[in-house]
Amino acid sequence: MDAKYAFAQQIVKEAGAFLRQHLHDDLLIEEKTDFTDLVTHLDKQVQEELAQQIISRYPDDSIYGEESEQRSSLFQGKVWVIDPIDGTTNFIVQQTDFAVLLAYFEDGVGQFGIIYDVMQDKLYHGGGSFPVYENDHLLPSFVDKPFKAGLIGISAGLFAQENLGFRTIAEKSLGTRSYGSAGISFAHVLTGRLMAHFSNAFPWDYAAAAILGQSLGYSLIRPDGSQLAYEGRELVIFLPTVKIDEVKGVCESCNSL
Amino acid sequence: MDAKYAFAQQIVKEAGAFLRQHLHDDLLIEEKTDFTDLVTHLDKQVQEELAQQIISRYPDDSIYGEESEQRSSLFQGKVWVIDPIDGTTNFIVQQTDFAVLLAYFEDGVGQFGIIYDVMQDKLYHGGGSFPVYENDHLLPSFVDKPFKAGLIGISAGLFAQENLGFRTIAEKSLGTRSYGSAGISFAHVLTGRLMAHFSNAFPWDYAAAAILGQSLGYSLIRPDGSQLAYEGRELVIFLPTVKIDEVKGVCESCNSL
Lengths: 257, 257
Prior knowledge:
The structure is a homodimer.
Chain A: H1 2-21, E1 29-31, E2 38-40, H2 41-57, E3 62-65, E4 78-86, H3 88-93, E5 99-106, E6 109-117, E7 122-127, E8 130-134, E9 137-138, E10 152-153, H4 156-160, H5 166-171, E11 176-177, H6 182-191, E12 196-201, H7 203-214, E13 218-221, E14 234-240, H8 244-250
Parallel strand pairs in A: 3-4, 10-11, 10-12
Antiparallel strand pairs in A: 1-2, 4-5, 5-6, 6-7, 7-8, 8-9, 12-14, 13-14
Helix pairs in contact in A: 1-2, 6-7
């Protein structure tokens, strides 16, 4: 697993370097579900490049990618989950606050996760049997503190939905922040910049964070506290494991969502 | 004016360097209006240091500071508007995304403004008769594009207030972002990372941005399009001047706020 983990870090960093070089290219931009859901030719190119490198080296493994046409089950065999550019809108408009995300599973068990904040050149990596690092700095486990000593990552849209309990949690905190990249926001939870992050996300958005958080005392769950389906889009919360009961209580109305 | 402008840049950069050195100090934190409205001993110390340096060198000038007990009128004489740490909560929790803000007025006319993004080491400076720079990179004027090609800076709280027109504008855009520092968000408007920023702000939060934006085609206004009072807390929008009519139309309900 060590060689595979080193290989994964290397290809993600190379993908980030490629994106930095092409930051000011003319982009071919397409709409996916609506005018705010964008994909560029670079999302597709990076996805293909990562998948091709993985399959060349590990021909029996399979790929579950944001920009893939076909996706394997995450629960069978050796599966690489790829989000080539998490925060595509930021990539297009801001040229910052976007990430390359990679997670590796064997029969549904996360072995390692990688979140690469490309413009800050910060590689969050580890999970499974590996310690969790920001670059070469070991990340500490969560030390308990109340919500009122932290900040909550949440989009304005999710905050404004009265039927979710999310707003109640956010209002117990020092305030909310919204960065436009789930991967980067989850990384901010790992470093304490955010105490928790609420998102409406796909498996490729949250798989790496879920694996990275485990040994540091963070959980990626549904609002009612149950396990994620790892299929389609779901409301998810990434938070300190010791806070699950507090959030579950507030979010009981979310159970039926 | 050149010497004053150079002096202003120097003391702001020194204040930023001081804050970087004291980033991990034990902070004395006090609540102002409620548990989310915080001030540290470093806000006060930086405010005093800046004020003392200004008055030593320019004894006839006066100070209008966030942490001042007495504030001069902004419309009479030579007035320095200081926010020693804009984004105090970020400073406390995140150790990033905070700014030192300075604006200089003569009889109510802005002569120059400075926003210093301390951790990114980016000094936005200029306005009045000075060109506007990010460090030594000249910033371009706004080039017209529709809201749907940009991002809107707004807090979740302001977005969720149905009686404001802000949500309507935000929903015409690619999405919203919230960084927890008005000064840094206004700077993001100047660089195009945000198309506009909506805030409930005090003069020390927005004075520098208002001066910086003028020659680049940006305006700092009330939601109904009228001029700011530069007194107390007000709902403000920093946006491309060519977009004022579009926002005014949506925000007619804001007139009576």
